[in-house]
User: Fold DUF2752 domain-containing protein from Pontiella desulfatans.
Amino acid sequence: MRPGLKNLLVVALIGAAAFLLWWIHPAENKAIPQCLLLQTTGLHCPGCGSLRSIHFLLQGNLAAAWAMNPLTILLLPGLVFLGIAELLFRRHDIATRIPPVWLWLLAAVFILFGILRNLPAFACLAPH
Assistant:
């Protein structure tokens, strides 16, 4: 497959997924499963609320998006940047060129966020 066609297909699939996520509220659709960790333990993982967060972001409701998962809102611009760099500049090594210290820091942020959002004092970090 030609690179241009492959890129177009990737963009079309992402666009279709974004449209569906804009149109369908994840919490109201039974086809989208609930988080397995939340179902089994009652605890929110660092990703809980991410789909709802992106849904509200696509609808233009930043406050509701932030209430669902602030970490998603903070990390989304970086993920979009990496995706655009991969597609436009054909730099398939960008993600692997990130210094390991940044990846360890990101892992620590995920773990800390996952712990804090389950503590009563930080209930504001849980999806609501």
